[in-house]
Amino acid sequence: MERCARGPSAGSCSLDSRMERQWLPIREIHGETDMTEKIPHNVRGAINSTLTRRVFLAGVLALPAGCNAPGTGSVSAGANYGPATNEPFPITGIDVSARDPELLRQEVAFSGPYRPGTVVVNIAERRLYLVQAGGRALRYAVGVGREEALNFQGSAIIGRKAEWPSWTPTATMISAIPRYAAYAGGMPGGIDNPLGARALYLYRDGEDTHFRLHGTMEPETIGTAVSSGCIRLVNQDIIDLYNRVPVGAPVIVLQK
Q: Taken in order 100, 103, 104, 108, is the CA torsion positive or negative?
């Protein structure tokens, strides 16, 4: 299933706040029926090469390195938050003049044991770092799970990517929330879909973890703990990340 759903704020999405409050703990909803295919064989080599014991231990044991002090970065060159004109569905622009600069994509100083191309998510900071060469990283603000138990932790890789992905509730979720039966065959991608414009799927040991890095139509939820466990970015940021990160890229999720 897809763990990712709308936050408690109001919006045009049919998955409204009343539904959001009824989401089950993730340990009860492992029955996703679509998007559970094995990672492609040609990516298995990436698991062995990128998720070595050294990288795994670094991700689990390292302090949240790279978490620079607020205000020390600079807004990334080309960080366009305007409306998207080349997408199949409309993406509303974000007024950056009215937005906290800390929530904008920035290039920042970064120190840590991760090689360039690694995605590092710091749940406590509610930030995602794409490690660059030369002690730098691109930093994105994210929304995280409402409770610590809902958040993924440890190491994974990007097992696959999708543009305007579909979303499918599990049988357990449909039983708990009968109106989800309308989406038993999957909710097509679009402006009402809780995964937004892009999704990056986290895999571990060749298996889909059911956690995603994905977009959202609710920019007001970024920097907060509102999701059912997945990591959400504004659509402009997830599109930028999607274009930079290949299948097979390592992901480290730090709780603290």
A: positive
- In eight-state DSSP terms, residue 180 is G
> Between the CA atoms of 182, 184, 185 and 189, what dihedral angle is there, to the nearest 10 degrees?
70
| 148, part of any domain | yes
Question: CATH number for the domain including 216?
Answer: 2.40.440.10
Q: Is residue 87 part of a domain?
A: no
Domain that holds residue 174: 17-67+103-254
**Is 84 part of a structural domain of the chain?**
no
Query: Where would I find the H helices in the chain?
Result: 17-20, 41-50, 53-61, 171-176, 235-244
- Verify whether residue 214 is a known catalytic residue: yes
From the list 4, 13, 67, 230, the catalytic residue is 230
Catalytic-residue membership of 41 = no
pTM of the complete model: 0.72
Q: Is the residue at 161 inside a domain?
A: yes
Distance CA 235, CA 233 (A): 6
Domain count, the chain: 1
Q: How confident is the model over 54-88, as pLDDT tens digits?
A: 443 344 333 344 455 444 566 665 578 999 989 99
Distance separating alpha carbons of residues 214 and 201, to the nearest angstrom? 9
